[in-house]
Design brief:
This protein has 145 residues and is of the alpha/beta class. The chain has one domain (6-137): Ribonuclease Z/Hydroxyacylglutathione hydrolase-like (Metallo-beta-lactamase, Chain A, 4-Layer Sandwich), CATH 3.60.15. It is built from 3 helices and 10 strands. It has helices at 18-25, 101-111, 131-137, and strands at 6-8, 28-31, 46-47, 59-60, 72-74, 79-82, 86-87, 94-95, 119-122, 128-130. The strands form 3 sheets. A 5-stranded mixed sheet has the order 4-5-6-9-10. Strands 1-2-3 form a 3-stranded parallel sheet, covered by helices on one side. A hairpin with a 4-residue loop joins strand 5 (72-74) and strand 6. The protein is globular, with a radius of gyration of 15 Å.
Length: 145
């Protein structure tokens, strides 16, 4: 197994260990252009936005939530990775609530169905889900827990 060569921060408040991974593995780091004032990494991250192409063929996506979050498409693994747009409380995949759920988030997340993904990876709750769980999540009420 090879060590990681890049670190991708998908959301400004998910920077906790980026400096550690960059130092430990001498990895390149990518992430948002903006961070919370009290949570700025020491590492200089290369900026990402929806549509950015990263090494290894990874592509950042648009989730419609307006939270400076960029989900990630891993084509080789046929997987989507989310920071907070989707969550899995009690093991059930759900879309996180926003005031513009119907108007922006759902259309953007439905557009991702065009990708040939088989797995969905989330950062909160049960981490790995399948495409069917993603499709079901788009039909459920948003999670506001």
């Amino acid at each position: 197994m090879y060590p990681p060569t890049l670190v991708v921060v998908l959301k400004p408040d998910h920077v906790r260990d980026v400096d550690l991974f960059v130092r430990r593995y001498d990895a390149r780091a990518f992430g948002p252009h903006l961070f919370w004032r009290g949570d700025i990494p020491e590492t200089d991250l290369q900026g990402i936005e929806p549509g950015s192409e990263l090494p290894g063929g990874l592509v950042t996506l648009y989730d419609g939530r307006g939270r400076n979050e960029t989900p990630l498409w891993l084509p080789e693994q046929r997987a989507l990775v989310f920071a907070d747009a989707l969550t899995a409380p009690a093991g059930e995949l759900r879309v996180s609530s926003t005031p513009w759920h119907e108007e922006r988030a759902l259309p953007a997340l439905r557009a991702l169905l065009e990708l040939p993904f088989e797995q969905v990876i989330v950062s909160h709750g049960e981490p790995v889900h399948d495409r069917a769980a993603y499709e079901r999540a788009l039909l459920l009420p948003p999670w506001s827990g």
